[in-house]
TrEMBL record:
PANTHER family: TRANSCRIPTIONAL REGULATORY PROTEIN NARL-RELATED, TWO-COMPONENT RESPONSE REGULATOR. Transmembrane segments: none annotated. This is Response regulator. The lineage of its organism: Bacteria, Bacillati, Actinomycetota, Actinomycetes, Kitasatosporales. Keywords: DNA-binding, Phosphoprotein, Transcription, Transcription regulation. Residues 8-124 form the Response regulatory domain. It comes from Streptomyces celluloflavus.
Length: 228
């Protein structure tokens, strides 16, 4: 840590044992004060609004409101709070939506205390707090040649309607429900209905799975891979 004030941190993770373990670890690290913890994205957004922490350590796969959506809302509503993702997943379908949503750091849960301190310090200094593993993945992605996605068929998969496909594409672009509503000139409730319907038809659990589904079926454009 640099010689500035102590970093005030909130931890968001839906697994109680993991969340409490992270809080305990952070309590032992220099220059960090844990001011709150959240069991899902909705709670994380509420705590940030109340406590205005410097950093949120954010899990991705959580109920009600996942980490990507919570990150987007926090960065839009509380730009003074930085987000560092701390997750089990390092796949592209988790990494890139989180970065698009405004996360400035990304660590996997095998990170040690020094890595967490360094990431928090980096994001509060205006830099990116990325683990070496994530930095390598970003470099690998930049080095990959563009690959052609499968041509979408005339009929959407799993009986999706044209409107549901349109909503799915916007989800894959990283738009939140209110942003999708504005784009399509419909209500947020209508967007939620479309998302619930397409999740049920495609057997999807969360937005990360929906993004992967959209890429796999050629319904959306992964980062760096132009659709033909």
């Amino acid at each position: 840590m640099t010689a500035r004030t102590v970093a005030r941190v909130v931890v968001a993770d839906d697994q109680t044992v993991v969340r409490e373990g992270i809080v305990m670890l952070l309590g032992l690290l220099p220059g960090i004060e844990v001011v709150g913890s959240a069991a899902d994205g909705e709670e994380a957004v509420r705590i940030v609004a109340k406590l205005t922490p410097d950093v949120v350590l954010m899990d991705l796969r959580m109920p009600r409101c996942d980490g990507v959506e919570a990150t987007r809302r926090i960065r839009a509503e509380h730009p003074g709070t930085q987000v560092v993702v701390l997750t089990t997943y390092a796949d592209d379908e988790s990494l890139f939506p989180a970065l698009r949503a405004g996360a400035r750091g990304y660590l996997t849960k095998d990170a040690d205390g020094d890595e967490i301190v360094r990431a928090i310090d980096d994001v509060l200094s205006g830099d990116a707090g990325l683990s070496p593993k994530i930095q390598r993945r970003l470099l690998e992605r930049l080095a990959e040649p563009a690959r052609t996605l499968p041509e979408p068929s005339d009929e959407p998969p799993d009986g999706l309607t044209a409107r549901e496909v349109e909503v799915l594409r916007l989800v894959a672009e990283g738009q939140s429900n209110p942003e999708i509503a504005r784009t399509l000139h419909v209500s947020t409730a209508t967007v939620k209905t479309h998302i619930n319907n397409l999740f049920a038809k495609a057997g999807l659990r969360d937005r990360a799975q929906a993004i992967h589904y959209a890429y796999r079926h050629g319904l959306a454009e992964p980062p760096g891979r132009p659709l033909n």
